[in-house]
Design a protein that fits this description.
Elements lengths: L6 E10 L2 E9 H4 L3 E2 L7 H8 L2 H12 L9 E5 L6 E3 L4 E4 L6 E5 L1 H9 L5 E7 L4 H14 L5 H11 L4 H15 L9 E2 L8 E2 H8 L11 H20 L11 H9 L1 H12 L5 H14 L2 H5 L5 H13 L5
Parallel strand pairs: 3-7, 4-8, 9-10
Antiparallel strand pairs: 1-2, 1-6, 2-8, 4-7, 5-6
Helix pairs in contact: 3-4, 7-8, 7-9, 8-10, 9-12, 10-14, 11-12, 12-14
Length: 324
């Protein structure tokens, strides 16, 4: 460590509510060598690997190396005594020793881990706090990670099309969702929330996680055909069970909705065996009518936290009526 040479970067002195920190940019190869993630780890390198998600770090490295990505958000650090931070050049330059334990990462742990795995070197924004106590570091870490929330997954899905980031399945899910959202004949009209999470409506995230697993059965059918097949299935369920028991709003429960589509392949298979590829509301109802009488109303009203458990109940309710 004594052979390390001190490095210096141009920095701006920032004061917010009487708290001072320094804003600068730093090369990622230097940054990744002088940061650690936990004051409790003896080995900063092992601490990185034990504490963080390597898959996520590799995705960041790939984004930098192969997708020409940019990462404009700042890494937030707390200088440790071993860094020997000095402010020189009339307060416009920060100088320190790039020791492996020079800076504790308060925010940006996975980005720094990704930088360490990337072949490319970028210059990235960095915020450095100097002279914080362990208590102040801990409180700042909590504030950053609890009060500065990321963009909701629902909104990211909603704008992926504009960013041209959708894969083929995501594009298909979006088109089907949008049709359910806009078609006046939709079983889910008024029950969908395209860009935000909602307790009383089905979000894109819930919709995608429910429909995507059955996409393997879609074949080469287009959006309109798939919408019609799924819409008739939901209508049969809504009219045959939910409205009949005056609990129509419960279909918007994420556990219930996922459970319905977990048994969809089983139901659709029975329809095809009896009626060919005529997936009408009446044909779905013919297959499911006995099941509707055996479903536990209480399990739908209070589905718990496992859609698989509820799906097993639905499947058992349908198969219990079988006779030769």
């Amino acid at each position: 460590m004594n052979n390390l040479e001190r490095v210096r970067y141009t920095a701006s002195n920032v004061i917010q509510n009487k708290t001072k920190f320094y804003s600068l940019t730093m090369p990622t190869d230097i940054l990744s060598k002088c940061c650690f993630v936990s004051s409790r780890d003896e080995d900063p390198v092992a601490g990185f690997q034990r504490t963080l998600d390597e898959k996520r770090a590799l995705e960041i490295a790939n984004y930098i190396d192969n997708e020409q990505g940019t990462i404009p958000s700042a890494i937030i650090l707390s200088a440790q005594d071993v860094a020997g931070v000095e402010i020189i050049g009339k307060g416009r330059t920060i100088e320190f020793l790039p020791d492996p334990r020079a800076f504790l990462i308060l925010d940006g742990q996975h980005r720094v881990y990704g930088f360490s795995k990337a072949k490319s070197t970028l210059r990235v924004p960095v915020i450095i706090y100097v002279g914080l106590s362990r208590k102040e570091e801990s409180r700042l870490f909590i504030d950053i990670n609890s009060k500065q929330k990321g963009v909701p997954s629902e909104l990211l899905l909603d704008i992926k099309r504009m960013a041209e980031y959708e894969n083929s399945t995501e594009g298909l899910m979006r088109d089907i969702f949008d049709t359910f959202h806009s078609d006046p004949n939709s079983a889910l009209i008024g029950k969908l929330s395209p860009a935000a999470k909602s307790k009383s409506k089905i979000s894109r995230v819930t919709f995608n996680s429910s429909i995507s697993p059955v996409a393997q059965f879609f074949g080469d059918r287009d959006t309109d055909e798939l919408y019609a097949i799924l819409n008739c299935y939901l209508k049969a369920f809504i009219y045959g069970f939910f409205k009949a028991n005056d609990i129509e709003d419960q279909i918007c429960n994420s556990i219930v909705f996922r459970a319905l589509f977990s048994v969809f392949p089983e139901v659709a298979s029975k329809v095809k065996d009896r009626f060919g590829s005529d997936y009408s509301v009446d044909n779905y109802d013919a297959v499911m009518s006995d099941m509707f009488n055996k479903i536990s109303l209480q399990k739908i009203k209070k589905p718990g936290n496992s859609y698989k458990t509820l799906a097993n109940h639905l499947s058992n309710s349908m198969n219990s009526s079988f006779t030769l």
